[in-house]
Specification:
33% of the residues lie in helices and 21% in strands. It has 556 residues and is of the alpha+beta class. The chain has helices at residues 11-28, 42-56, 67-82, 114-129, 135-151, 163-178, 182-202, 212-226, 230-249, 275-280, 305-312, 485-490, 496-504; strands at residues 97-98, 110-111, 251-252, 255-256, 318-325, 337-344, 349-353, 367-370, 380-384, 403-407, 410-415, 425-430, 433-437, 440-445, 448-454, 458-462, 466-471, 476-484, 509-511, 515-521, 528-534, 541-544, 547-548. The radius of gyration is 25 Å and the shape is globular.
Length: 556
């Protein structure tokens, strides 16, 4: 979308690109009968109207429409959105907004979620633009913010260290300052310090949790921008430094490498929630589609230079080995540690979570190979056995029936699917050139060669943005190894045909029956990888050169 080279742009210029792009989309989008653009999520109306209003009052932006008309349209949507708040004290969810508005927004019941992030963002937007509001909009914002404060939705104790509590903590600081509530401010300070200490000691329980990670970033950036107390602002800065450091570990040109505890359709199978990364790093093109606009165009905290440098300079491959402990609400028992792994080089990344975890809505993405975000199409390669919530064409929601071995550019997966379950597994391949063999797919996509070995025969279906693999008759296994063109050239491989010919000669050894196993000698380092499990799903072994995988070097 931008003509200038990405490395020459600044965060502010990138934010202005986002504001302009969304404003243009908002201005051209016709309003529904309700006077809103969206009935799926009330927050989308607030986000789009915020961008349209900001663009309309910015004298330095050149836009393909009249700014006065655009300002009036933005104000009308903001007013309609604000008026959907429950303003009746003493009623359930007082001070809250509905979430879904279909079919009649005015009759939609209030919901606990929207105010968590929208309430704090309203305070920021009001401070930034209230002098350009009409009198009616100024009164509406002032009234709504008062109802939010009196709703006390944020007066909850930190227990699970997730994104809801992160937003409560930021709101305590924001509304405590705004309403001169010293007790609330102190509660917010304590919650902030407690949360920061916990994630430093135990890791973030919402590993790769999108879009919720960005709610952490937005909530604390919003509080940081509004904060005037130097001590609190410093602690908020420490929190944001931590968050961006965590993001940089798994970053590859817009991609989020490794495991995800949550994955929505705009995050799986392709990385689509890109705007905060675009503003911070800017090493990929601003996409045409922006499924989660939120406030990336407004809020910004510059990550430390060493964090940005680590994310942007992937000349040498790096292994990320992280340990995390989840917190279960209401449980006093210490939970088993989770171990995340990623191998990241300049052209691709591979990795995931060693353990299967029951996540909300069963949306864990256990493992994937990731390519840098492309101009179009899917940038991930992965396989899974479908579980609860799976629908054809939506390659998410895995079952528990998978065991894994991660080692650098190679992933081994076993699928010990028991009798009585659907025996098919599903795979996602990025678009590219693919050579089909009866039990292998050898491909080239995004400057990377992929060798995909399947223990059973498969069928291939062309989806609009990826190739879908279906392999039936599990139990079985899948082995995938990736080589960049540079890595392949060091092995004397210079085209897909040469790669495919060599890869076929290196096919893994699969066994089924009493023991389900896969054994493979990786191109990289010529190391022998073995993964095996007995038919009772016990006695799992993951071996590298005959030695069991160790988690001793995994750190929080």
């Amino acid at each position: 979308m931008a003509d200038m080279p990405q490395q020459q742009t600044t965060s502010k210029i990138r934010q202005r690109q986002i504001i302009s792009a969304i404003a243009v989309e908002a201005e051209r989008r016709p309003l529904l009968y309700s006077g809103l653009w969206f009935h799926d999520d009330v927050r989308n109306n607030f986000y789009y109207a915020s961008y349209l209003f900001a663009a309309a009052v910015d004298d330095t932006l050149e836009l393909p429409f009249g700014k006065e008309d655009a300002k009036r349209k933005a104000e009308s949507v903001l007013l309609e959105t604000v008026r959907l708040q429950n303003r009746m004290p003493g009623t359930p969810l007082y001070g809250h907004w509905p979430l879904g508005l279909h079919p009649t927004p005015g009759e939609a019941a209030p919901h606990e979620l929207p105010v968590e992030i929208m309430g704090s963002l309203m305070v920021w937007f009001n401070r930034q633009y209230c002098d350009r509001f009409s009198a009616g909009l100024r009164v509406a914002f002032h009234t709504a913010i008062g109802h939010i404060y009196r709703s006390a939705f944020f007066r909850k104790q930190v227990a699970t260290f997730g994104h809801h509590e992160a937003k409560y903590t930021a709101a305590k600081l924001i509304f405590g300052k705004l309403f001169e509530d010293d007790l609330l401010r102190e509660d917010g300070r304590h919650s902030l310090e407690l949360t920061l200490a916990h994630i430093r000691a135990k890791g973030m329980p919402e590993y790769g949790s999108l879009p919720w990670f960005w709610h952490w970033v937005q909530a604390f950036t919003c509080a940081w921008e509004l904060e005037e107390d130097s001590s609190l602002k410093s602690t908020l800065g420490e929190m944001l430094d931590y968050l961006w450091s965590e993001r940089s570990l798994w970053y590859l040109k817009g991609a989020w490498a490794g495991a995800h505890s949550r994955g929505w359709p705009h995050d799986v199978p392709a990385d689509g929630n890109l705007l905060h990364d675009y503003v911070q790093f800017g090493d990929f093109a601003l996409p045409e589609e922006m499924p989660r606009t939120e406030y990336a165009g407004f809020l910004y905290y510059e990550a430390p230079e060493e964090v940005r440098s680590a994310a942007l300079n992937r000349r040498l491959p790096a292994e990320v080995c992280k340990k995390t402990e989840k917190v279960v609400a209401g449980s006093t028992e210490r939970q088993p540690a989770l171990h995340s792994y990623a191998y990241i080089c300049k052209d691709y990344a591979a990795g995931g979570m060693w353990e299967r975890v029951e996540e909300f809505d069963n949306e864990q993405l256990r493992w994937a190979f990731s390519l840098p975000v492309p101009a179009a199409g899917v940038n991930r390669l992965y396989f899974f056995h479908p579980g609860q919530g799976y629908q054809p064409g939506d390659p998410r929601h895995q079952s528990p029936y998978m065991e894994v071995l991660y080692h650098q550019n190679t992933i081994l997966s076993l699928f010990p699917v028991p009798e009585g379950e659907d025996t098919a597994i599903v795979g996602v391949l990025p678009l590219g050139e693919w050579i089909r063999q009866p039990k292998a797919l050898l491909g080239y996509a995004g400057n990377v060669y992929f060798a995909v070995y399947v223990s059973q025969e498969y069928e291939l279906l062309e989806r609009p943005s990826y190739l879908e693999v279906t392999s039936k008759n599990m139990p079985g296994a899948v082995v995938v190894e990736a080589l960049s063109t540079d890595q392949a050239a060091e092995l004397g491989i210079h085209c897909l045909e040469e790669f495919a010919a060599a890869a076929i000669q290196r096919a893994p050894e699969f066994t089924e029956g009493e023991i389900l196993s896969a054994a493979y000698t990786a191109w990289s380092g010529n190391e022998r990888l073995q993964l095996r499990i007995d038919n009772k799903h016990t006695g799992i072994q993951a071996l590298i050169n005959g030695k069991p995988v160790s988690f001793e070097h995994y750190k929080v």
